[in-house]
C-alpha cells in the first residue's frame, strides 16, 4: 500500500514538472501592460507585482524566452534615462525577474548577441531599434555580461554602436565609455 502511494506521488510530481516545462516553453505574456486601462490605476508597487514571473516558470523557460520576456517587460525602459549606466543595470535587476534569470544562463551572451545583430538589420522598425539599443547597453554595461564578451565581440559592438549613433545626442559618459571600453 505504501509502495503504491509512493508511486502515485512520484507520478504526480513527474507529471506536474512536465506540465510546468511544457507551459514554460511558450513565450511569457505579461498579464497587464501600459496600454491597459487598469494599468494607469496601479501604484508603482502594484505594477511591479503584476509584472513578476513565478519562479517555477522562470526555471523552465528557454534562454530565448527569457530574453523575450526581458525585452517585453512593461517596466523596462532605456538605460539612457539614468545618470549612470550602473543605475540602469540595477534597475533592470530590481524590476525584471526574466533578466535576473537570463544573466545566470551560460548561453545568455550568445543569445543576446544573436538577437542584437538580428534586430539591427531592421532599423526601419522602431521597436527593433529600441530593443537593439537596450541589448547593446546591457551587453556593454552589465559586468556579468561584459566579462563574457570576447575582444572581437566588444569591438564589433563598440564599432557598430558608435557608427549607428553618429549624429544622435547621447550623454558624454555613454559616448566615452563606449569608445574606451
Produce the secondary structure layout.
Blueprint: H1 2-24, H2 37-41, H3 44-50, H4 55-60, H5 63-72, H6 85-95, H7 97-102, H8 108-120, H9 126-141, H10 143-146, H11 151-164, H12 172-180
Summarize the structure in words.
The protein has 181 residues and is mainly alpha-helical. 69% of the residues lie in helices and 0% in strands. It has twelve helices and no strands. It has helices at residues 2-24, 37-41, 44-50, 55-60, 63-72, 85-95, 97-102, 108-120, 126-141, 143-146, 151-164, 172-180. α8 packs antiparallel against α9 (126-141). The longest helix is centred in the first third of the chain and has 23 residues, at 2-24.
Name the descriptors.
single chain; 181 residues; mainly alpha; 12 helices; disordered C terminus
Radius of gyration: 19 Å
- Spell out the helices and strands N to C: HHHHHHHHHHHH
Overall pLDDT level = 80
The unreliable regions are: 18-22, 165-172, 174-181
What is the helix content? Answer: 55-70%
Describe the global form.
Answer: globular
Task: Give the helix tally.
Answer: 12
Quantity of strands, as a count: 0
The portion of residues forming beta strands comes to under 5%
First-to-last CA distance: 66 Å
- How is the biggest beta sheet arranged? none
- Structural class comes to mainly alpha
